[in-house]
What does this fold into?
Amino acid sequence: MKKIDKLILGSFWGPFFLTLGVVIFIFLMRLLMSYIDEFVSKDLDLATFGRLLFYFSLLTIPTALPLAVLLSSLMTFGNLGEFFELTALKSAGISLTRAMQPLLVVAVAISAFSFWFNNKVSPWANLKGYSLLYDIKTAKATLNLKEGIFYNDLPGYSIKVDQKIKTNKESKNGDLLKGLIIYKHNTNGVDQGNREVILADSGRMYTSPDRAYLVFELFNGNDYQEYADNGAVSFASSGPSGQKSGQFMRNSFRDYRLVISLESFGLKRTDENQFEYHEFMKDLSQLNQLTDSLSRDFRTTGLSVASTSRQYYNYQFKPAPVPTVQAATGPKPVVVKDGPWVDKVLKKAGPPRPDMAQMALSQAQTMLSSATSNMTYLNEKEKNIWRYQLESQHKFTQSVSVFVMFLIGASMGAIIKKGGFGVPVLIAIIFFIFLYVLTIVGDKYAKDGLIWVPAGAWMANLVLFPIGLFLMQRARHDSRLFDKDVYIIAWNRFRARWFPAKTVS
It folds into this structure.
């Protein structure tokens, strides 16, 4: 490797990894801001939260790679141009394309890595990340008793406290509670009412060391229970119909300990196989296999819909009775054709009955409803095919975007001859937003069936690749494309030609 290659590569890797880390951080902050309400009050441990951030940081790498390559290549050649190193290279007989060769090899390698990452790592990270996020979203919040409000998130219990006094976090005695009312509900059936009501003047609430149980230590209260004749516990009193009432019991206590399981709280992992149906969880071979299966199912469903729809038509798909003609070879059918005879038959039938119009309208509405539902059903099946096809195309488009962004970044850096994080960052953000918007628009058009799926998936690259070639051609010829003096001179020439100055006589 020559010194010039080492120089260019050395100035490339620093901005590349810095930009990659910054973009991943920004996308992670976007994730946290989107789901901040789901994370609070869930009592997540650092290991679970770290796994979630790790999975979603992997998911942002394919999106961050094009921007990192764009900005780093732009800064590399911008610095070379700003310090006249490109001019020295050209004066030594080294062309711009030769100076770009080491980064060209790196861009191709990063593109190949992006394709492998999209095909192997991203499906795995999507499955792990979104399944964990679903479990976090569906997990119950931590226990939070509020003064004067019944808390009903504990299965089988309704708890109300009049006053709650927070204690020191280092204290093992828990929070001090005043005026407690605890209803025990019968979870076997609502017809039996409450099993038990506990009233206490005060108490303490804390969790067991393994956080598996919630303990209420109650002081100076009463425990009210009523047992029905059949042995069930109930507060349902006997009515005037003569039903026998149950046995009522009241137990007074000075110190009573109530232990409640916290099994319903905390994070419970869902079977990840429930999320594997999504196209983001599939690699290229699985996507192709599912696309073929869905296409065959779509064709089969279309044929079955066409055959079952014939039952709603009385004449188009049913053989009409036709008269026969006797001949030596046997009876031959005579084909019935439209003609004036139809009007004659209708006249002989007499005036139409009043219910015929309603019957015809009802049948027409039935046919329309059936056709609409069948079309909706087939459109949804076809949209599923488009989604899987689009994800298959994105395995390639995101990797090609890395090369396209390198082409634009290296050319723009050689043209503007500005390094650092000023102008290069602004230009990189503009092109990246352009890439992002074109990708979203193409995906939307492809999912809606407005354009061919490959055309929608490749829209961004098809638009930006010619721009990259144009900028490369301008950079090879030392174009002053972004020099304001060029446009000032062109404007003055335009004014001098079309608006010449008037001479004074």
In short: Residues 46 and 199 are 38 Å apart (CA to CA). DSSP finds twelve helices and seven strands in the chain.
